[in-house]
Structure formats: C-alpha cells, structure tokens
Write a structure and sequence with these properties.
15% strand, three-stranded parallel beta sheet, 10 helices, Rossmann fold, binds guanine, six-stranded parallel beta sheet
Length: 320
Amino acid sequence: MSPPRERTGYKIRRGSGKAKRKSGVADARIIDGRALAGDLRQRVAETAGRLRERHNFVPGLATILVGDDPASHSYVRSKRNACAAAGLAAFDRSLPADTPEAALIAEVGRLNADDQVDAILVQLPLPAQIDAHRVITAIDPQKDVDGFHPLNVGRLWTGLPALVPCTPQGCLMLIRSVRPDLAGAEAVILGRSNIVGRPMAALLLAADCTVTAVHSKTREAAAIARRADILVAAVGRPALVGAGWVKPGAVVVDAGITAISAPDGRTRLVGDVDFAAVRAVAGAMTPVPGGVGPMTIACLVRNTVLAACRRRGLADPPPI
Ligand code: GUN
C-alpha cells in the first residue's frame, strides 16, 4: 500500500439523491449509516419490549473497560447508552490501567456466572500487560457479543449460527442497502484485523462474493482494489483510498476510523477513504462519521438481544 496522502476538506451531503458531477455523471450516493442504524435500533427495542412482556426478562450487556484511553471511554459510553435507549440493562466495569491479566479474567468469570448478564464486551485494545487473546477465550462463547471467541470465529467460517462481529455485520447491512444481491460480486477488503477484515471476508464469502483481502504485504494494492465492485477499507490510515483505487460505480464502505487533531484544537474522526476524490468515482459510499460507526453500535445492541434469546433457548429475533 502507498503512504497516506493529505486529505482535502469536504462537505457531506446526506440522503439517497445523486448530485451531478462536472462530467455529467452523478456523484456517488451517500449511504446514511445513522438512518439505517436508527431503524435497526428501533426494531431491536421493539423485540426487547416483546421479550419483557412475554418472557419477563431484560437482556443485559456488561462492558469492561481497562485504563483511561479517552477514545475507548467514548466508544464504551456510546455502546452502553445505545443499550439503555433500547430498553436493555447495561452493567459497567471500569478497571485501572495496571489491572493484572488474572484480575481481568476473574472479572470475566464473574460475569460469565451472572445470570442477568447475557453479553460481555471487553473493550480493545487492552494495556500491554494483558494478552487480549487469553481474555477473549475466557468469555463464555454464548455471551461473546463481539463474536471474537475462537468458537464463534470457527462457527462463522464454517457457516454455523454464530455471534458475528458487529462492525463487519454493520458494513454488510450498509452494502446490502444499496446492493441487495451480492452473488458473483468482486469484493476487496483492505485490512486483515480480527475485528473487521477477517470476519468481513467470511461474511462476503457467505454472501457469494469473490473475496480478496489486501494487507500490508500485498503488491499492487491499488490495482487490486480497482477490480472491486464492493470495496471495504479497514486499515486506519487516513485518506489511503484515493480515486485511483476505486472502480467506477463501486460500493465503497469506510470502516477505518482515525481520530486526528484539527487546527482548531478539536479532535475529529477521519476514515481511510479520501471522501471528496472517491465521491466522483464510486456509485455509493459511506461517510465518516455517520457511516459504519453507528451501524457497529446498532449491531451490538442486536447481538445482545440475540445472545439473550439463544441462551434461553428462544427463537432468534427477526433478521436484520
Ligand atoms: N475496539 C475497537 N473496535 C472494537 C469492537 O468492535 N469491540 C471491542 N470489544 N473493542 C473494540
């Protein structure tokens, strides 16, 4: 991959209408993640209400946050608030940055044993003294709301019912909102993280796409990306994806969120995609913010309700 380039300022126009480019070709349709996420959260809230009335329980999410990273605090707060807004119970564990791994695993064990807790989320990244893999494997797979436990990863890749990671699940919803039938589509994923890239590959493969994963050792990354009907960027390098990386008419989903300091001293979130440049080439694309982020949270709320139903042997909530 080539080094990141300076990004230009841009204005996001929301809605499904298309503006005309100078060339007379329409600008990319902007996929409104906030609207889609709001709709999903509303439907999940209705399901939670029915569960309360008919089965007399409230699904509960426990979040564990270790340390003082401001971005992690903000993400966890948003997740807890979204659960509370959907009528779910939220349990909050905040641990100091120097928490030993054994203490964190013991906390996970207590939440595994707590019947009010249906879903457990340990916010990543964790401090250096803690092995995230050991912590994730300590979570009861039935409560593994992130879908990071090896059992859920294996179930996803083998086509069995699983708890599926929230960000790629949200990306797939965004893609399907503009392209419902994905069979035979060329999909290229930039990034191979366990949180986004790898599960995204599994989901797009299951949707009958031809899938390529591009990573730091890939040669000719831009040329491969340019083949994609569906391009998902999840690298964390601001404005990596320029117009030359995008096939005309492609669906481009930007899952790469980086917080940068603006000249006015404020922090703002930027994606992996050079929005202004790519907008003139893509058929549809997500903005940052307002694209993948809200969908991740909505899918977490749904995963919490899904985990609660499966743990009790109830039917899954309606499909997303
Ligand atoms: N850190 C960044 N994204 C995620 C996520 O989806 N889940 C958890 N647990 N931590 C994260």
